[in-house]
Amino acid sequence: MDNRMKKARMNAASTVLHQLIALSCGLIIPGIMIDTFGSEAYGATTSIAQFLSYIALFEGGIGRVARGALYKPLALRDEEKISGLYLAVKRFFSLIGIAFAGYALILALSYFDLADVKVFTRQYTFFLVLSIALGKFAEYMGGISNVTLFNADGRQYVVNAAYMVTNVLNALLIVLLAHSGADILWVKLGSSLIFVLRPLFFTLYLKSHYAIKKSKNKAVLANKFTGIAQHAAYVVQNNTDVLILTLLADLKYVAVYSVYHLIIFNIRNLVTAFTGGMEAVFGNMIAGGEEETLRQTYKEYKLILTVLTVTFFSATAVLILPFVKLYTAGVTDADYIRPLFALIMVLAEALNCLVLPCFNLTIAAGKLKESRMGAYGEALVNLTVSLVLVLWNPLVGVALGTLASALYKCVFYMVFSGRHILKMKTGAILRDLALTCGVIAALSCGGLLLSTLITIPNYLLWVLFALATVAVTGGCGLLLGALLYPGRVKGALSSLLKKVKK
C-alpha cells in the first residue's frame, strides 16, 4: 500500500509540474513563432498539425482498454501475460503508424491546394508537412505502447519526466533557431527530432525495467472496438460546441468561446493533475480483490478532488470576468464579457472533475463495454441540447448542452461505479455530488455578481485579488471536505501530526 501511494504522490507531483511547464512553453512558443515568421506562416504550421491530429480518432480508446487489461497481470507480476498484452498494443499502434505515414504523405501532396497556401511554395509545403509529421510517427512506432504500459504500472512520473524534458528542449531549440535566422522548415524539423527522443528514451527504460518476451500465442485486446467507439464519442463530445457555433452561428462566438474554454480547461488540467496516477492505484487494488481498501482510497481521492474543485472552480467563477476584461482590452469586434456563459461553463467543468474518480474506476476495472452508454449518452445529450438551444442563444445554448452532458456523465458513472465496483450506496454518492455542486454554484454566483461590480485595472491587482479569492474558496472547500468525509480528514491530520512529531 505504501509503495502504491508513494507512486501516486510521485505521479501527482510530476503531473502538476508537467502541466505548469507545458503551459509556460505553450505561451512562449506561439509568440516567438508569430514574431519571427508571421501569422500566416505560423497559422499554416498550426493548421497542418491539426490536420495530422485527425487520425487520432482511430487510435483512441485502445489505451484505456489496454490499461484495464494490464492491471491484473501487473499486480500478479505475470510476465508472460504482460508481454503478450504489451506486444498486442504495440502491433496495433504500429499499424496505426503505417496508416499515419500514408495519411501524412497524402496530406503533404494535397495540403498546398487544400489550404490555398500562399506563403510557401508547393515543394516547401510538402516537406513542411512531413517534418511536422515525423514526431507523431515516432510516437506511434514506439512511444504510445510504452506509455500505456508505464501508466498502467503506476509509473506516470517516468512519462511526465520525458515530456517535461522534451518540452523544455523544444522551447529552447525554437528560441535558438528562430533568433539565429533559421528557416521555419528547419525549426519544425528540429522540433520533431526533439520529440523523437521520447520514444527512444521509453524504449531504453522498457528494456531496463521490464522483461518483455515474444510469444507464439498472440494476446487479443478484448473490447478494443468498444474503446474506439467510445473515443469517437469523446471526440464528438469535445468538438460539438465549436462545430455547432461554426456551422450555425457567427465565428465571433467561436473566438469568445475559445478564450473562456482556454482558461477553464487549464484550470481543469491543474485540478486533475494533483491526483495523477490514481487510476493505476485503483487498478492494482481491483486486481488484488482489495474491496475495502479500494473504498477507502476512493474516499481519499474524492476528498482531494472535492476540496480542489470547490477551491479553484469557485475562484475561477469570481476571477474569470476581470481577467477576460484585461486580456481582451482594446478588442471591439466582439463582446467578450459573458457572465452567464462563464458561470455555466465553470459548473460544467467542475462536474467533469468531480466525476473523475468514478470514471477512472470503470477503466481500472476493465468495464468499458458495460459502461459504454455513459460515453454515448454524454455525446448525444450535448449534441441534442446544443442544437436545440443554439439558435436561441449561441453561447449560452452550447454551454447548457455541455452542462447537461456533464451532469448526465456524473450521474451515470457515479451510479455505475457505486453499484458494480465500489459496492456502495449510490444515494450517498449522489447526495455528496448535489451538496458539492450547491456549494460551488452558491460561491460562483455570489462571486460572479461581485466581479461585475468591481473594476480591476491591471494584472498586478488581479493577482492580489486572486490570492484573496483562493484563500476564501479554499477555506470553504476544506470545510465541505471535512463535512463529507470526516473520517478521511481525521486520518490525514493524524498522519500529518505523526510526521511533525518525528
Structure write-up:
With 502 residues, the chain is an all-alpha fold. The chain has 2 domains: 1-222, no CATH class; 249-369 and 413-495, no CATH class. It is built from 19 helices and no strands. The radius of gyration is 23 Å and the shape is globular. 44% of the residues are buried.
Question: Number of helix segments?
Answer: 19
Per the principal axes of the C-alpha atoms, what is the gross shape? globular
End-to-end span in angstroms? 21 Å
- Which percent range describes the beta-strand content? under 5%
> Largest sheet, if any?
none
What features would you highlight for this structure?
2 domains; disordered C terminus; 502 residues; mainly alpha
Chain-wise SSE layout:
Blueprint: H1 2-37, H2 39-53, H3 56-59, H4 62-76, H5 79-114, H6 122-152, H7 156-179, H8 184-209, H9 224-248, H10 251-273, H11 278-287, H12 291-327, H13 339-354, H14 356-364, H15 372-389, H16 394-422, H17 426-453, H18 459-484, H19 486-501
